[in-house]
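Slide 14.
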Amino acid sequence: MSEGAPSVLCPGTDGHFGELRSLSLGARIASTAAEVDAAQALRYNVFYEELGARPDAATAASRRDRDAFDDVADHLLVVDHTLGEGPESIVATYRLIRREAANRVGRFYSADEYDVTLLDHFPGRVLELGRSCVHRGYRGRAAMQLLWRAIAAYVFLHRIDLMFGCASFPGTDPDAVKAELTYLYYNHLAPLDVRLHAQPGRFVDMRRMDPCLLDKRRVLIELPPLIKGYLRLGGFVGDGAVIDPQFNTTDVAVIVKTDLVTAKYTRHFERQNRDGSE
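Slide 15: predicted structure.
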């Protein structure tokens, strides 16, 4: 699939967008239990088999990455129609949890790592993003761009005002990513009203070197694509990194006020409806 390929937003009938298409790829919300199961299988393959996460006995037996939040979440999928029209076509996924869905569980997933209580007072609709993964064979720009376009559509349709989640660096040694953590702290720290703080028992200081010694160009190249995607949307990071030994990662909280996302998507949506262009 070529970069910059045209995409079409097809209307849905369930309160979500139908399918965002770009050549053979499509992005939509899972609509069946089989699709959610396939997304969980993909997550297991990427997180546990490829990236070294440590499964408990139940996870290893099922070969699925699943938890209680899956039952209340919307599961965003990227499918490759050349692979079929069923669960076998799923090549990327992202888990979306609106505040009202999190309330059914009793908390947001990220609350284990970050104090998210200040979001209880945020005067708008809140969305937590997580469990992002892309099949090894689809990690070019095409699938990620389609995921971001689909998230923009979701934010637009559900009138989300703020989205947040944890983004990860591989490995559990924060000094291995000291330049990246330091750069994020000094250049993208969230304003106080939405600055999430790592839980006290898990707080890892992100200020790990003299910021004057940073090679910012190199850091921007080395940042994981997901974090770069958040920053392009005007995103911020919370205060403190967190080590996740189960998933073999060093995590940061990322927060995005969606003004830029909705403004860009509104212009796109109006253009599409006016003349059918992309």
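Speaker note: The first helix runs from residue 33 to 50.
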